[in-house]
Amino acid sequence: MISLSNTPVLTTERLVLRAPTAADWPAFRAFMHSDRARFLRPPDLDDGKVWRAFGHVIGMWVLRGYGSFVLTRAGSDAAMGLVGPWHPFDWPEPEIGWTVWDAAAEGKGLVAEAAIAARAYAFDMLGWPTAVSYIDPDNARSIALANRLGAVLDPDAAHPGTEPCLVYRHLAPGAGA
Question: Can you give the pTM of this predicted structure?
Fold first, then answer.
């Protein structure tokens, strides 16, 4: 199988965060067609659009030199979601984002653990002084996670698109307010 080369692998006590691979497609596809993705996608998302979205996830690594990491448990390569740096061309700021594909990964602190590691990577390795998380106002779980991570609601920040969106700001240690 062909894979992205020279992409970092992050590890935490319980997790491995790695670049996406073609083997992650079935889990991504299932997630995107599930109600779990309701805050991320339009209702008319067909397999062709899901495929292009998956290509965007992989292509971010090539185009930007960074991207979202696939979240897996240590000792398993089964994809549970995506977490990490994200910055599409037309977005106003770089984001620390997360999606949880597997409901069994929720409520255990795994996504927070992964987000802390990915955010540290963005600040320490990519040199970002700040990042945001764009969150649908109805996504209570993501809002709770942003708060748990110490991100602060930034009502004056721009956001992508025309849909309502909350912007939570993450500051690098020592970056100031």
Answer: 0.93
